[in-house]
Design goal:
With 114 residues, this protein is mostly helical. The protein has 2 domains: 39 residues; 60 residues, Alpha Horseshoe (Serine Threonine Protein Phosphatase 5, Tetratricopeptide repeat). 75% of the residues lie in helices and 0% in strands. The radius of gyration is 20 Å and the shape is elongated.
């Protein structure tokens, strides 16, 4: 049995950029009044919510649409791409197992379900 997991290396400069942005904002907090501190805090929260998570959710939604259209190969690609960012997600294991089942790869599918 061959594993469906694969290693794909990506640049992860976003983390360094996020840390630099946080440090820049913190520097501004030290020198500003309370109103400005509150505004900067809200900006930080918004940036974190925009920067982390939507990529995975978007890939899963795209995979789900492809699965509904019975385009199983592309759906599998979307799910495995999302698995790079969330490798332990039970939802992704379930979705991948469903795709493998639809492709009549029953042994691999069973392995993903377990």
């Amino acid at each position: 049995m061959e594993s469906t997991k694969r290693k794909i290396y990506e640049n992860r400069f976003q983390w360094i950029l996020s840390i630099a942005l946080i440090l820049l904002v913190l520097e501004g907090l030290i020198q500003r009044d309370k109103k400005m501190k509150a505004r900067i805090f809200v900006i930080i929260l918004v940036l974190f919510n925009l920067g982390f998570g939507p990529a995975v959710v978007g890939k899963v939604k795209q995979g789900n649409k492809l699965f509904q259209k019975e385009n199983y190969n592309d759906a599998l690609k979307k799910y495995t791409d999302a698995q790079i960012d969330k490798p332990e997600s039970p939802e992704l294991f379930y979705n991948i197992a469903n795709v493998l089942y639809k492709q009549s790869k029953y042994a691999e599918s069973e392995q993903m379900f377990n």
